Amino acid sequence: MSTLLKLAALLLPVAALGLPPSDLLERQDGCTTPAVGAYADVSEKNLPDPWKFASGSAVATPADFACRQAEMSKILQQFVLGDLPPPPDSLTATMSGSSMSLAIKVGSNSKTISVSITKPSGGGTAGGPALIAVGGASIPVPGAVGRIAFGNDACAAQSNPASHGTGWFFDLHGKTHSAGATLAWAWCVGRIIDGLEQLGAAKTGVDPKKLAVTGCSRNGKGAFMVGAFEKRIALVIPQESGSGGAASWRISDSEFAKGKNIQTAHQIVRENAWFSPKFTTYVNKTDTIPGDNHFLAALVAPRGLFVIENDIDWLGPVSTTVAMRAGRTVYDALGVKTNMGFSLVGGHSHCSFPSATNANLLSFFNKFLLGSGNTNDVDTSKANVTMSDWIGNWSAAPRLAA
Ligand code: MCU
Fold this sequence. Notes:
Oligomer: single chain
Bound molecules: methyl 4-O-methyl-beta-D-glucopyranuronate
Radius of gyration: 20 Å
Strand content: 15-25%
Structural class: alpha/beta
Distance between the termini: 34 Å
Shape: globular
Order of helices and strands: HHHEEEEEHHHHEHEHHHEHEHH
């Protein structure tokens, strides 16, 4: 680390203390003592407690929570997702018409990617908000929001388990890199944001501080992963992501044991390359993982998160309801409960957006991308769940808000 960087690292926490608490919490990189090394297996029937470090000590302050977020990220990478690489060695962005080109180098590997941008209307030189669509968007999007098309299959393929290693992520990092496709997509979206930042709003039309991400189904798992692992996204809208997204591995196993036609960890690794080859070790013993998918919501917190689900058995409505309500308790402790909404409106086909959800979704676009109004307090699930069965042994949540 250069002397300048060391100085900046020392000064940051001091400078951050002067910020209002909401801004302090936005600084998710505020952990000055991140844990290092590998995490041990556990034996935990409940959802792992977000308020307790793997070491057993309590999460009591905003700085602790930033460190716990770093830990939750590492846990999901170690057991389920594979490793998230650091930014590339170099990236050069150019804009031509509506196409952004990214020349990326990692070690001796290089790749040039092109990304199509539909500029937001009326953004001026400061740029306007934009939605990154993982494989396309299946939600209504306000007219003032631009579009960025992310061709996730080209980044990391998702045809079957043997797809692992195919795509420009793997061309850059090597075919045997541990990342599953969904985490690889998060890294690739990070490069799109690098390009937007480098070129600036005057060229791209996009304000990189006003980005949302969405995707449905398999691409909804991706949208969730992008939001959880790429902190520059302001609003995350995973739609019908089900297993591996909004659903909990543990609860889906429990529902499966009750005879439900639900997607589980042991099935999903045989279907596709969404998760790391490392996950295979754990798919028949998910209660030994010191994390679960409520951690995804905890990693997005306190940023905007609007989780859309459906009542289709395969997606696990009980599993998604419990995991996402658990996620909302984290937002609540941060004093921003309504920054996360959970919308489960059933009775429609997979990835068709129910119009009953329009107003709630719009309230999230308005607050996080268009800068107006407050979000509605959204939890529309009618699934019959007993939260205490899954989070009953959690420590009392600290109050981390102002
Ligand atoms: C919900 O996402 C997936 C699901 O995980 C798969 O099991 C199924 O085959 O496809 C869903 C999907 O992506 O549908 C478009």
